[in-house]
Amino acid sequence: MPSSGSPEAAHVSSGPTGNRLTVLSGPSGVGKSTVVAELRRSHPEVWLSVSVTTRAPRPGETHGVEYYFVSDEEFDRLVAAGELLEWAEFAGNRYGTPRAPVERKLADGVPTLLEIDLQGARQVRETMPEALLVFLAPPSWEELESRLRGRGTEPEHVIERRLAAGRVELAAEKEFDLSLVNTAVNEVCVRLIALMK
């Protein structure tokens, strides 16, 4: 299984405040959103970036809380102006991370976290090479498959697509600065906080 740290991680440079952006990524079903929810509950000082998207708000979603909802034209403008750290397309909608709020929080010394996919993490590596990229890994492939199937919310063809993507994402683990195995959410949060501070 993956190591819990690497020598390279100790040498990632930080900004003028000593803070650096932390990126959390990993395969679908590994528990990223659960870890982030617990991290925000136990450490409200951590700022989680809000993505911009071209998809329509779902019932109960608020502009600027879950997402910034924008038109295709506005998204095109953000991309052209270099105002996104990373962006990707999913199911016909685009999602991206606004650059300015992230840079502002880092400059203010606020611990800053992005929860994004592999494609986004690779883009952040290009646009903000000093960022710390953390890979959240499952305890085993069987556990990941069990979690995806255990949700009971998606048809088999969607699960198979997620599993195929998961194999690709797991193969990219070596691109990250370090890995944390998600055996216990609380333990992962403790490690993440230590890395961020």
UniProtKB/TrEMBL annotation:
Annotated SMART domains: GuKc
PANTHER family in alphabetical order: GUANYLATE KINASE (PTHR23117:SF13), GUANYLATE KINASE-RELATED (PTHR23117)
Keyword Oxidoreductase among record annotations: no
PROSITE patterns: GUANYLATE_KINASE_1 (PS00856), GUANYLATE_KINASE_2 (PS50052)
Domain Guanylate kinase-like: 19-197
Protein name listed in UniProt: Guanylate kinase
Keywords for this protein: ATP-binding, Cytoplasm, Kinase, Nucleotide-binding, Transferase
Listed InterPro entries: GK/Ca_channel_bsu, Guanylate_kin-like_dom, Guanylate_kinase, Guanylate_kinase_CS, P-loop_NTPase
Binding site for ATP: 26-33
Main subcellular location: cytoplasm
UniProt entry tagged with the keyword Transmembrane: no
Region ranges (Disordered): 1-27
Protein's cellular compartments: Cytoplasm
SUPFAM superfamilies: P-loop containing nucleoside triphosphate hydrolases
Function: Essential for recycling GMP and indirectly, cGMP.
Molecular functions per Gene Ontology: ATP binding; GMP kinase activity
